[in-house]
Design a protein that fits this description.
six-stranded parallel β-sheet, globular, alpha/beta, binds adenosine-5'-diphosphate, binds magnesium ion, 37% helix
Length: 832
């Protein structure tokens, strides 16, 4: 009896809040079969019921349990996309947004115009889109356009455990948007998905949800993973250690894929290269060398270098020379980018290889199919990891952290974990940033180990001791606590969230970081000046709730950091806008030049790289120009490089010949288009267009550009220490900045490293062997008090030079001495 009533109520509820429909999906039989094996399928009812009955639901499930691929399908089938609303899924990484949309499209047998993706510059969204995968940043931008997100019926926040800044902000905003939508009779659902069980920051947070959302756990069918710790921890050469471990596994252990976790792209390539050398593809040991060379010729790399890979004696692999210096040498070249010719797309056809019988014994003659995987690897190369390896070969994926949770690689039985991750660290006060390799958390280490037990029991080899593991933090910190938040604060102010301190962050950023952000925005003119009077407490409070100015609104419309947005806002005069757009676009892309200091694979390669480097240095000098244009420094180099590249049609060949990263150039082109549109949208009479045959700026334009750059980077100013002030030799050629106690330097590769101008502004300070400024531009001392009065102290007119009458203008004028705030640099007098 009771049951019947329950059912009635159910149906009633169903009619109430959502269509009780079932939208059929026509899946291929093999797809359907694979789906049924996913643990999440067993929970479909529970999940859908929870979603139906609650505005917000938290879903936890091991990586690979089917959250990302299946939940959008459950919702689709239940009709959440049938009455016009779109099902949105946000991912912290572009990689995941693209590959997951493709996977779901394939599973549902639907085209990309129905199951689509949208990332910063590209996407395939259409009128017909029903399921839309996107990066979290993209959804945040959409909230600015339509706070209620009326296009969407469901928002799924995926990978919430990663605690990326945008994900955190989205959850905060959605905790308000969802109830608002439902109150207005426009039903909307929020699903937060996490790969770990640590969700208290979302559920127990009273500021977020009034009543904690239900947490549904999906039990994954996880096989036992035996964890092996190293006795000793390799402190420096963990890539060498990883290489040795892989060789050992491949040589001695039964079939099964290997997944290796390293920290960055350079390490991934270095290990891939060594593995390919150690285990060259050889379908059959009896094959002659000439055949092997034939095979190799098919590959791009062999074509280029025309070398045959050396054979190695498998019995002496452990005696292979240890590769020192695997770390990324150059700062700033992180996982970002690349299409280098490291052979990431090296693919050898295995030919018809006689099926090796799956005997449970290692056979070193089995080829090792080595694939790199990192976030910015081209999607088509990335997709390879999901395909089965060539018959008879053992899969070995050498990856960065992306393989930890976002992507599930099938058939992995062995995991090799270096225990580290590369992260960008900022000094909250000084803004100095550095990429550092640090230990992961215990939660991450366990996630990584779990990758080995997806299809059968597996093994995880940790390249560190259990004692070291014991010292790892339990969980990874939220990103928001580790980076500056000026861009977020501006976006939030634009959403009319004035008191950012009161925002329901899952983990709030430190108040220091918030204050620094507001301060920067005030000095850029994006926020109103707080009153200077009043009691201390009141002033403090006012300082943290400054409203946005019209300039701030314009700046918020540009999809770049506030300092750059300010430059765009000032770029309209003297026809400078196209140049400002280009410079900003180029500064936003992390590194436009190829890195010729990376470790080379062979002597031949190293000679080749030296040649390319010489050419690249020469080109940079050419692009920097002379006279006025040289004063624009590294930014002139960026402008010149982009100009030259576009003039040549932005081809891969031009980039390769001139040491530019092709992918970076394409991204700059897209960003220029996007910024051009944004500028035209903000100022309807700007009339800017993208000119691919852009003439170099004139002398007066260059001067103007330098002033614009100064106005945007005003807090990043540095003054060379003069000979007479040189007390400590460590300051030789050093620059003093307002916030740092130590000297910063102009990098040897900078266009200004010979002239060493007195005053410069810089894009950022990166700490490598020394603290180096990146993106340096020379500025004139007399511009500073005029363009950055907010940073200057002016002398009282009566004191230093007395007012004087100017017969020309017929006005009384007075000159003021000014000093640049904390550092008290004397600056030239200005007329008032
Ligand atoms: P979760 O989000 O819970 O980590 P996913 O939904 O991403 O899980 O993955 C579920 C299953 O789908 C995994 O077994 C994974 O191997 C498989 N899968 C995901 N993407 C692909 C793909 N592009 N090709 C083949 N299989 C895939
Ligand atoms: Mg997932």
């Amino acid at each position: 009896e009771e049951k019947k009533e329950d059912v009635k109520e159910e149906t009633h509820k169903k009619e109430d809040c959502k269509p009780a429909v079932f939208i059929p999906v026509d899946r291929l039989p093999e797809i359907q079969e694979a789906r049924l094996r996913l643990p999440i399928l067993a929970e479909e009812q529970v999940i859908m019921e929870a979603v139906r009955e609650n505005e917000s639901v938290v879903l936890c499930g091991e990586t690979g349990s089917g959250k990302t691929t299946q939940v959008p399908q459950f919702l689709y089938e239940a009709g959440y996309a049938s009455s016009g609303g779109i099902i949105a899924v946000t991912e912290p990484r572009r990689v995941a947004a693209i590959s997951m949309s493709q996977r779901v499209a394939t599973e549902m047998n639907l085209p990309g115009r129905v199951v689509s993706y949208q990332i910063r510059y590209e996407g395939n969204v259409t009128e017909d889109t029903k399921i839309k995968f996107m990066t979290d940043g993209v959804l945040l931008k959409e909230i600015q356009k339509d706070f209620l997100l009326q296009k969407y019926s469901v928002i799924i926040i995926d990978e919430a455990h990663e605690r990326s800044v945008y994900t955190d902000i989205l959850i905060g905003l959605l905790s308000r948007i969802v109830p608002l939508r439902n109150k207005k009779g426009l039903p909307m659902k929020l699903i937060i998905m996490s790969a770990t069980l640590r969700v208290e920051d979302f559920t127990e947070n009273k500021r977020l949800f009034r009543s904690p959302p239900p947490v549904i756990k999906v039990e994954a069918r996880q096989f036992a993973v035996t964890v092996h710790f190293n006795k000793r921890t390799q402190m420096d050469n963990y890539t060498g250690e990883a290489f040795r471990k892989i060789c050992k596994i491949h040589r001695m252990l039964p079939p099964g894929g290997i997944l290796v976790f390293l920290t960055g792209q350079a390490e991934v390539h270095s290990v891939c290269r060594r593995l390919r050398k150690a285990f060259p593809y050889r379908p059959n040991r009896e094959h002659t060398d000439s055949m092997e060379t034939d095979d190799l010729k098919k590959s791009k790399r062999a074509k280029k270098k025309n070398v045959s890979l050396p054979r190695i004696n498998l019995d002496s692999y452990s005696a292979l020379p240890v590769d020192e210096g695997d770390e990324d040498r150059q700062a700033g070249v992180d996982e970002d980018d690349d299409d280098d010719d490291d052979g990431s797309d090296l693919e050898l056809e295995l030919g018809d290889h006689p099926e090796s019988d799956q005997e449970e014994k290692a056979d070193p003659s089995i080829p090792l199919y080595v694939l790199p995987l990192y976030s910015l690897l081209a999607p088509e190369l990335q997709a390879k990891v999901f395909r089965p390896p060539p018959a008879g070969a053992r899969l070995c994926v050498v990856a960065t952290n992306v393989a930890e949770t976002s992507l599930t690689i099938p058939g992995v039985k062995y995991v090799v974990d270096c225990g580290r991750v590369k992260k960008r660290f900022y000094d909250r006060v000084t803004g100095v940033s550095a990429f550092k390799v640090t230990w992961i958390s215990q939660a991450s280490a366990n996630q990584r180990a779990g990758r080995a037990g997806r299809t059968e029991p597996g093994h995880c080899y940790r390249l560190y001791s259990s004692a070291v593991f014991g010292d790892f933090g339990l969980f990874s910190e939220a990103e928001i606590t580790r980076r500056p938040v000026d861009d977020l604060v501006l976006q939030m102010k634009d959403l009319n969230i004035e008191k950012v301190v009161n925002f329901p962050f899952p983990t709030p950023p430190s108040s220091e970081a918030l204050i620094a952000a507001e301060q920067l925005l005030i000095s850029l003119g994006a926020l109103e000046e707080p009153p200077r009077r009043g009691r201390l407490g009141e002033m403090e409070r006012a300082r943290l709730s400054c409203p946005i100015t019209p300039l701030g609104r314009a700046m918020a419309a540009f999809p770049v950091a506030p300092r750059y947005a300010k430059m765009l806002a000032l770029g309209r005069q003297q026809g400078c806008m196209p140049y400002v757009i280009t410079i900003v676009a180029a500064m936003t892309v992390r590194e436009i030049f190829e890195d010729f200091d990376r470790p080379a694979g062979s002597e031949e390669e190293s000679t080749k790289m030296a040649g390319k480097k010489a050419r690249s240095v020469q080109m940079r000098r050419l692009w920097a120009g002379q006279g006025q244009s040289l004063q624009l420094g590294d930014l002139m180099v960026l402008l010149g490089a982009v100009g030259a590249c576009e003039f040549a049609g932005c081809t891969r060949q031009f980039c390769e010949e001139n040491g530019l990263r092709f992918k970076a150039m394409l991204e700059i082109r897209r960003l220029r288009g996007q910024l051009t549109n944004a500028v035209n949208a903000v100022c309807s009479d700007a009339g800017v267009y993208m000119d691919n045959k852009m003439a170099p700026p004139t002398e007066s334009q260059v001067t103007f550009l330098r002033q614009i750059v100064l106005a945007g980077l005003g807090d990043h100013i540095a003054r060379r220490v003069q000979a007479e002030e040189l007390l400590d030799p460590k300051w030789r050629n050093g620059y003093k900045t307002p916030l740092l106690d130590d000297p910063v330097f102009i990098h040897p590769s900078s266009a200004l490293n010979k002239t060493l101008p007195e005053f410069v502004v810089y894009q950022e300070v990166m700490e490598t062997t020394k603290m180096y400024m990146r993106g340096v531009c020379a500025v004139q001392a007399e511009w500073i008090p005029r363009l950055l009065p907010q940073y200057c102290h002016f002398s009282v007119p009566e004191e230093s030079p007395a007012p004087w009458y100017c017969p020309l203008s017929g006005r009384l004028k007075c000159q003021q001495q000014s000093t640049f705030f904390r550092v008290s640099w004397k600056l030239p007098a200005v007329e008032m």
